[in-house]
Design brief:
This protein is α+β, with helices and mostly antiparallel strands. It has helices at residues 101-113, 120-123; strands spanning 9-12, 19-26, 31-32, 39-45, 56-60, 64-65, 73-74, 83-86. The strands form 2 sheets. It has a 6-stranded antiparallel sheet with strand order 1-2-4-5-8-7, with no helix packed on it. A two-stranded antiparallel sheet has the order 3-6. This is UBC core domain-containing protein.
Length: 124
Amino acid sequence: MIKQRQNPIMSYDLADDLVVKIEQLKFPDGWENSDGAQFGDVIFDLSSTYPRKQPKVYVSDDMSYRGGSPHVLYAQSVAPNGFTKYCIHTLSDWDPDKHSLKTMFNILEVSLENPKAKNPLQEA
């Protein structure tokens, strides 16, 4: 599991940006950046609708999975410079009283482990 094998760098400024950035996250086996390493950055965009709606997720735009680009990497979407939108399925049961940024990190973790699954959340 991602959270058990590393100590990435996290930064945030919720007063201005509403963005949480995790730098040098070690991705699961099969993922690599343009240098051949498994490390990349992740952004959770909380926007003004959080916590009513789940945040958007972006990963470093040089990350690939086994040399390809699985459907979860959505290059056609608008993303911060240097990032690609990471499509995590919208949770129909998202509840701001029960779910949090930790929930989204756990969902990202499951999805990164199964990026070619049609719905990694159901298949995990």
